[in-house]
């Protein structure tokens, strides 16, 4: 495996994550395709891990967005807290860049819901009169899941925030709490999020 090509893909993917709000998986593949068009053929084995991309994202943010990103992250976490409180009955857990501390104003909020009835969360949104879109997330290696997408205003950011509510089976939560290869969690519940918000500066 070419370490230099993997590092190049990770750096290019990180720029896509920060500047366009892309998810890590999509950013890695888009970066690899772009490098392939320039003559750098990347195999699946040369794709960076999500942790490698995240390291590059953190480095990019520190270099270019150190003054603005902490406040943007805090604003996004407050949007997440609002929705997690509204949907507390579905055991919401914040995931993605907003949980991991690498989000910017371009990022969407990702909240995993764990439901006994896969349609219960959508019924709750309907009962609350909340407009939403529904699409199916097919991860290939995992069971397809419904994603309920809402738009939430943020006064702090001065723009609407996209919130994706991912509907999971009630029993999937135990496996979802496994840490990454460095012992850091991929998601956290409302209490964990509130602890982060209580810190002087938003951090992962």
How would you summarize what this structure contains?
This protein has 204 residues and is of the alpha+beta class. It folds into two domains: 3-64, no CATH class; 69-198, Beta Polymerase, domain 2. 45% of the residues lie in helices and 19% in strands.
Could you please describe the fold and organization of this structure?
The protein is 45% helix and 19% strand. The chain is an alpha+beta fold. It folds into two domains: 3-64, no CATH class; 69-198, Beta Polymerase, domain 2. The protein has a six-stranded mixed β-sheet with strand order 3-4-5-2-1-6. Helix 1 packs across helix 3 (50-64). The longest helix is centred in the N-terminal third of the chain and has 18 residues, at 3-20. It is globular. The two termini are 31 Å apart. The mean pLDDT is 90.
Task: List the topology elements.
Layout (H helix, E strand, L loop, with lengths): L2 H18 L3 H14 L12 H15 L4 H18 L6 E3 H5 L8 E7 L4 H8 L5 E5 L7 E10 L4 E11 L3 H4 L10 E2 L1 H9 L6
Parallel strand pairs: 2-5
Antiparallel strand pairs: 1-2, 1-6, 3-4, 4-5
Helix pairs in contact: 1-2, 1-3, 4-8
CATH evolutionary superfamily of the largest domain: Beta Polymerase, domain 2
Q: What is the CATH architecture assignment of the largest domain?
A: 2-Layer Sandwich
**How far apart, in Å, are the first and last alpha carbons?**
31 Å
- Runs in which pLDDT lies below 50 for 5 or more consecutive residues are none
Total beta strand runs: 6
By CATH, the topology of the largest domain is: Beta Polymerase, domain 2
* Number of DSSP helical runs: 8
Mean of pLDDT: 90
User: What oligomeric state is this?
Assistant: single chain
In order across it, which strands form the biggest sheet? 3-4-5-2-1-6
Largest sheet: 6 strands, mixed
User: CATH class of the largest domain, please?
Assistant: Alpha Beta
Coarse structural class: alpha+beta
Radius of gyration, rounded? 17 Å
Please estimate the helix content.
Answer: 40-55%
| General shape | globular
How much of the sequence lies in strands comes to 15-25%
Number of domains: 2
Run of helices and strands = HHHHEHEHEEEHEH
């Amino acid at each position: 495996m070419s370490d230099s090509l993997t590092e190049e893909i990770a750096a290019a993917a990180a720029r896509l994550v920060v500047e366009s709000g892309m998810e890590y998986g999509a950013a890695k593949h888009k970066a690899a395709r772009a490098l392939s068009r320039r003559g750098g053929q990347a195999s699946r084995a040369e794709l960076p891990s999500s942790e490698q991309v995240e390291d590059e994202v953190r480095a990019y943010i520190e270099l270019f967005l150190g003054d603005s990103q902490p406040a943007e992250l805090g604003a996004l976490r407050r949007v997440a807290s609002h929705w997690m409180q509204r949907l507390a009955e579905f055991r919401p857990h914040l995931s993605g860049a907003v949980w991991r501390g690498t989000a910017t104003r371009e990022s969407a909020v990702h909240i995993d819901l764990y439901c006994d009835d896969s349609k219960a969360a959508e019924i709750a949104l309907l009962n609350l009169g909340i407009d939403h879109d529904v699409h199916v997330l097919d991860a290939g290696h995992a069971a397809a899941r419904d994603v309920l997408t809402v738009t939430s205003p943020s006064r702090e950011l001065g723009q609407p925030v996209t919130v994706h509510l991912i509907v999971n089976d009630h029993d999937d939560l135990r496996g979802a709490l496994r840490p990454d290869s460095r012992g850091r969690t991929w998601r956290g519940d409302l209490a964990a999020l509130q602890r982060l918000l209580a810190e002087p500066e938003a951090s992962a």
